[in-house]
């Protein structure tokens, strides 16, 4: 029998609530004459990246975070980019540094990310922060995985003792999310299975999930037959597909076939309006935390 009342996990509403809480923190820092600063570096003119960057800068303004914009041309040399990061590392006004991905292919992403000081790595991608996450130590956690956990926590979805199946093994979502969920900690203690492009019979695993997290970047990959009745479904995917009924000619969908899966799931995130808004909120949270740590 289908679930009669599927709960929609509203990331937009949750992110708005979190941002209001963060305003209290920026106000407390202001009393100490500290203004959090975030440097956002954009290389090239990728349309999706430009949208994300504008949203991040707008949110900074709303929270009272000083935003340092560095837009570099697509033909920017790696040396120029690394020199900029060195300057931002030394700038005491800058508490967080974010280099918008993806970078042009000729730039070495690994070298660029490793150039950012771990204490300013508010994206949580530096090897030091990755290691701290795996060890269960304090450090900056990648924003999307952190946002997924906060969403579940605020909707009373506890992963402890549950079987969580993550479809996707990226360094941005899949791997760090698995590391978070297996920790011996509150809002964790899950049994985690990771599926990926080389997993045979993925549906065999996804149907066993108490909590299913889709993060592979394939439009509507997760079909209703792949989901257990009453599962919680977190859709991290954001994909633009053709749609002749839309003025733009396209529409956004997730990695989950929402219309069908929502009839079986106990709770589900929509796309858009699910995990996406939480990613930016967690970036702001990390930046404010970096400012708090720097001000000790």
Strand content: 15-25%
CATH topology of the largest domain: Rossmann fold
Number of domains: 2
CATH homology superfamily name of the largest domain: NAD(P)-binding Rossmann-like Domain
> How far is the first residue's CA from the last residue's CA?
56 Å
**In the CATH hierarchy, what is the class of the largest domain?**
Alpha Beta
Find the structural class using helix and strand composition.
alpha/beta
Give the low-pLDDT segments. Answer: none
Main sheet record: 6 strands, parallel
Total strands = 11
Order of helices and strands: EHEHEHEHHHEHEHEEEEHEH
Q: How many helices does DSSP assign?
A: 10
Shape: globular
Rg, alpha carbons? 19 Å
Helix content: 25-40%
Known CATH architecture of the largest domain: 3-Layer(aba) Sandwich
Strand order of the largest sheet: 1-11-8-7-5-6
Query: Overall pLDDT, averaged?
Result: 95
């Amino acid at each position: 029998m289908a679930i009669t009342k599927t709960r929609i996990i509203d990331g937009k509403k949750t992110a708005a609530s979190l941002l209001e809480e963060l305003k209290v923190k920026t106000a407390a820092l202001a009393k100490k004459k500290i203004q959090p600063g975030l440097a956002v570096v954009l290389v090239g003119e990728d349309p999706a990246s430009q949208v994300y960057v504008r949203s991040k800068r707008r949110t900074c303004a709303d929270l009272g975070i000083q935003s340092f914009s560095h837009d570099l041309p697509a033909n920017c040399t790696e040396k120029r980019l690394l020199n900029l990061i060195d300057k931002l590392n030394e700038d005491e006004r800058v508490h967080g540094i974010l280099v918008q991905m993806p970078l042009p292919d000729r730039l070495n992403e690994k070298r660029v990310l490793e150039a950012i000081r771990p204490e300013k790595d508010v994206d949580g991608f530096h090897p030091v922060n990755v290691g701290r996450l795996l060890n269960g130590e304090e450090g900056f956690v990648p924003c999307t995985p952190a946002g997924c956990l906060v969403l579940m926590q605020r909707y009373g979805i506890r992963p402890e003792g549950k079987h969580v199946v993550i479809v996707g093994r990226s360094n941005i979502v899949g791997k760090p999310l698995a590391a978070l969920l297996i920790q011996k900690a509150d809002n964790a203690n899950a049994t985690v299975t990771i599926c990926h492009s080389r997993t045979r019979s993925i549906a065999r695993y996804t149907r066993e999930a108490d909590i299913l997290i889709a993060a592979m970047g394939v439009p509507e990959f997760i079909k209703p037959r792949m989901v257990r009745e009453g599962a919680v479904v977190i859709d991290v995917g954001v994909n633009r597909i053709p749609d002749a009924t839309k003025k733009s000619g396209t529409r956004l969908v997730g990695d989950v076939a929402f219309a069908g899966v929502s009839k079986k799931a106990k709770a589900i995130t929509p796309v858009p309006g699910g995990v996406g808004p939480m990613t930016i909120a967690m970036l702001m949270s990390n930046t404010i935390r970096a400012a708090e740590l720097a001000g000790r």
